Amino acid sequence: MDELTRGLVQAIQLILSADPALLEIIFLSLRVTGLALLISTLVGVPAGAALGLSRLRARGLVTALLYTGMGLPPVVVGLFVYLMLSRSGPFGMLGWLFTPSAMVAAEIIISFPLVTGLTMTAVQGTDPALRVQVRSLGATRAQETWAVLSEARIGVVAAIVAAFGSIISEVGAVMLVGGNIDGKTRVLTTAIVLNTRTGDFVLAIALGIILLALAFIANAAMLRLQGQADR
Amino acid sequence: MNPSIYRIANLKKEYARRIVLDVEQLEIQGREILALVGPSGAGKSTLLRLLNFLEAPTQGNVIYQSLTMNGKIPLQIRREVTTVFQRPALLHASVRSNVAYGLDLRGARAEDRVNEMLERVGLAPLAHAPAHKLSGGEMQRVALARALVIEPQVLLLDEPTANLDPYNVGLIEEIVRQQNRERGTTIVLVTHNIFQARRLAHRVGLMLGGRLIEINDTATFFDSPSDPRTAAFVRGDMVY
Question: Is the pLDDT of residue B1 over 60?
Fold first, then answer.
């Protein structure tokens, strides 16, 4: 308990002191997570909408694949990305292994099925009569899709929030493909692992608190957005 | 007599190989109110969907404004026709946003038109209320306002007042009548309610089993129908 209190105090001190090494870790965490989330959202939301609206016969198979993707063990994703990017792997020439790019790649693979699958479910949950009504009012295909997405917005925001939560807190994959290199690929989660291992519990707790706070702020902001949209 | 706005000949629609609509001939005149009555499953709603170009017929074509509609329907033509359905499918947004929706789709938002429309359906005080929190009658008036604000050539009404209280039925019927009288909007009304057909329509048609049995001006349809099935239906002792 003593360590927890000291961790809390030190976390506040650390944040107030604006320690450059710490800020770098925080910014890298946000940058990697943000970029991965942005790409997953830009591709996953339209893909989920298209799947939710389509009447393809193969949709059952696609759904099963997506749901499997939503439960992928991150460490397995890390292993896969590692092999792809290692020098003898098919994408070895990119030279991404042990760089933030590799971490972004891994986090996209983890978050894309979440965004796509949950968006698809949200779109399927909208009233089919509304689509016919919107078309009858003169909507183009794109306008119809937009109308359905904005009706499903609560579910779509939840999809993005869930994806954010899963990758900001991800450790196995980013550890494998990033390597937790000080000043280069160290993020909050990998730093926590390292500091715990080396017995620096106070710093680990401080980092944990910062991580929690970031997740909380991001989620609160998203929920606010959701609430405004629902008014 | 006005020139016809729709012409239909040998129009068929099948779902899963079952023929649900098989209309030999039908002309809908511009500026008229045509009511289609008949039991459920008679193909009335299917016909409306074809008239709104929401689905393609299995056989035959709809001729709209002398143009044969097949393949991809041009957007401008699709936007001349709209439907108010039995269940008002409203957007999760304010009353005002719902009414303005059709104008927004056309990139032609006009606040004064929206205001005027809200007044007409008696919903101006509720303009900023969330549409899905309204009563059934109010919701249906939002749906009607949303359809009328785009000034369609043809307004299709699919059981627009089923399950509504008499007050709202009266309001909606009066708005529909006024729209037809003052703006010349062609209206096709599908209803179970033969009294409503009698109150509103210039002509009435009876549909049974996907076929159009008889179509006549309202007085003739009710007072001296030529088909015995029509006679039985208007007497209220048709068995189906």
Answer: no
A101, A119, B30, B81 from B62: Cα distances, Å: 57, 37, 15, 13
CATH code of the domain containing A64: 1.10.3720.10
Give contacts of A128 with chain B, Cβ < 8 Å.
none
Q: Provide CATH code, domain B4-80+152-235.
A: 3.40.50.300
Predicted local distance difference test score (pLDDT) of residue A11: 75
As a whole number, mean pLDDT of residues A122-144 equals: 94
What was the pLDDT predicted at B240?
A: 55
Whether the predicted pLDDT of B63 surpasses 80: yes
The confidence score (pLDDT) of residue B65 equals: 93
Report CA-CA distances (Å) from A129 to A124, A214, B88: 12, 40, 9
Question: Which of B85, B89, B150 has the CB atom closest to A138's CB atom?
Answer: B150
Burial class (CB in 10 A: 0-12, 13-18, 19+), A124: middle
Give me the domain span that covers residue A95.
2-230
What is the residue extent of each domain of chain B? 4-80+152-235, 90-151
Nearest to A230 among B89, B92, B106 (CB): B92
Q: What is the pLDDT averaged over residues A104-110?
A: 97
Which residue from A minimizes the CA distance to B104?
Answer: A139
